[in-house]
Amino acid sequence: MQQKQYGVFSLPVIVGALGFFVDIYDLLLFNIVRIKSFRELGVPEDVMKNYGENILNWQMIGLGIGGIIWGMLGDKKGRKSVLFGSILLYSLATIANGFVKTIDQYTWLRFIAGLGLAGELGASITLTSELLPKEKRGIGAAIIATSGVFGTIAAYIVYKLSGEDWRLCYFIGGGMGLALLFLRVKVLESGMYDRTKEKNVSLGNFLMFFTNRDRFFRYLRGILIGLPVWYIIGVLITFSDEFAKRFGIAGFDQPTALMLQYVALAFGDMGAGLFSNYIKSRKKTLLIFYAIATFFIILFFALRGGGSAFHMYLICMGLGFGSGISVLYITMSAEQFGTNLRATAAISISNLVRAFLPLISILFKWLRSENVLNDYVTAAWVTGIVVMAVACISALYTRESFAKDLNYVET
Questions:
Q1: What pTM, to 2 d.p., does this model score?
Q2: How far is CA 330 from CA 126, 241, 354, in A?
């Protein structure tokens, strides 16, 4: 039986876009309210950076663990069930974040929120990839990703309009998530997945990524090609206030930089999706955006020689545009694997990319230690060289997947 053909503005795409909007609002809200919330919780100024890195790392570890769990459930129980379960968990955890009294509570709840946040985007991309015609998959994914990153802009606006009431911001984020549950009732399951369930094949078996050499390296490359996104977000942008101090730039505001970066990232994600559709190549588009990101990384560190807050904001926007490859690497992840492992791959890869941030942070911390480079800025750009080199090599060995037929299984 031929599957019904959905358009790029169909209900599954719209619901996926709204879901990712709330996902990114909740995910990046901590970066926006970090300093204000720490001050109210009595964290000393001289250890805020360390606490911030620790909580962010635990949130990303939650995303990594959740990505594997939700991914397996997406293939075993269905893509739609993951959308329901993940949003319920992260919505409740986000609301609870508004009640925290200690740093330990804050850390645990961001970890739990990370577990919940892990299921959203990968499940949406997997579902729309299987519902939309193969020539429109990239456009549908671009709409979801672009709409999603506006969640950061909303988080920034809510934070400012609320008088920088960080607890209220968490309450609003959790409330939006719970409201989305009502929309998801109408989303249909993938017909391609339903037909695969009827076959005698293993569904959502995570260990299958390690039982075949070719499949393992497809999976590993899927993770590594996404690392530049979280190097830029998790190191350069999240701690851009630290870099501004070392660059001697006065009047720089980190929440503003984060918001501007995500405005540009929205255009980057949409541009990457449409451009890959135009040239009919995800791989070439990925490499082009790597080049754009590298150019702005160089400009970012050139500010060490002098610059203004305005210049730094512009460069942060350039970094955002260049890092607009989420739509590419997650769509490519979904397209690299058969239907019985597709959700496991797309959901876990999108979150293991985020979970690699603690490893990037460990490398960054080691490089800036007294016994190595003993310099914050130098350690950051050396870390960037390592991340970009690994990503470029992985991309070169990744198979082109544009317009690939997805109706097959892994054995």
A1: 0.82
A2: 9, 30, 12
